[in-house]
Design a protein that fits this description.
236 residues; mainly alpha; 2 domains; 9 helices
Length: 236
């Protein structure tokens, strides 16, 4: 009778440990979402936490966010389970080849695709507004002048008077002066169009500078998180 009760107790203990191990199984996607929520999306909650209750409440928000993600297909999470998983990831950083910073780089790297597409659009915009493309479009605007210059004069009657010849010479001189003056106006118009194009280039460069600054801030943010994790490992 005593041996039977001991066997039942051992079997019950094995069942409890089996259930615990199943509850603590996290997929890589779930771990990445945990890191993203803890160190990026909800980082302000942890930075502003002053008491243990505040930290527990912040972990509660993380757990509720993870529970709302049906794609993770995990059992009901609570603040303790989420905190324990972060501790487990820190141990993996120290004890195995699955380094924590690789997972963090992967989960934070989703915005790099948006940055790459943004940079590509900026480069295309700057190429379209480059001076070479504007110079290629200038001959089309001068073509009416050339067509006017090549238009032959209509032939007049065979005998002409000297006054008619003088009038024709006067008309030819006025046409020649108009042809000589019109390229200047075309060049002036091109110069006037140059300034708004330069403003567009400057605005594009300013946007590019702001994007690079945000990228540097994200790298600094990742470095700060890594430093905090390393300090936590040293303090342990």
């Amino acid at each position: 009778m005593v041996s039977r009760s001991r066997d039942e107790e051992m079997e019950t203990g094995r069942n409890i440990h089996h259930k615990r191990s199943r509850e603590l199984q996290w997929s890589n996607e779930a771990s990445q979402e945990l890191l993203r929520l803890r160190f990026k999306t909800l980082r302000a909650l942890f930075d502003e936490a002053d008491t243990v209750a505040d930290v527990h409440e912040a972990w509660g928000v993380v757990a509720s966010r993870l529970n709302a993600m049906e794609s993770l297909e995990m059992e009901e999470l609570d603040p303790v389970k989420c905190s324990d998983q972060l501790t487990k990831l820190r141990l993996q950083w120290q004890d195995s080849n699955t380094q924590l910073h690789l997972m963090m780089a992967e989960c934070f790297g989703k915005q790099q695709e948006r940055r790459t597409s943004f940079n590509r659009m900026m480069e295309e915009t700057m190429q379209e507004s480059s001076p070479k493309r504007r110079k290629q479009s200038e001959p089309s605007s001068v073509s009416p002048v050339e067509s006017q210059e090549e238009t032959p004069l209509s032939p007049g009657p065979a005998p002409v008077s000297p006054s008619a010849v003088q009038r024709e010479e006067h008309i030819e001189m006025s046409n020649l002066q108009a042809v000589q003056q019109e390229p200047v106006s075309v060049e002036a118009q091109a110069d006037e169009e140059e300034f708004p194009r330069e403003d567009e280039i400057m605005r594009a460069l300013e946007k590019r500078s702001e994007q690079l600054e945000r990228l540097a801030q994200s790298h600094q943010h990742l470095a700060d998180v890594t430093q905090k994790l390393m300090e936590a490992l040293v303090n342990q």
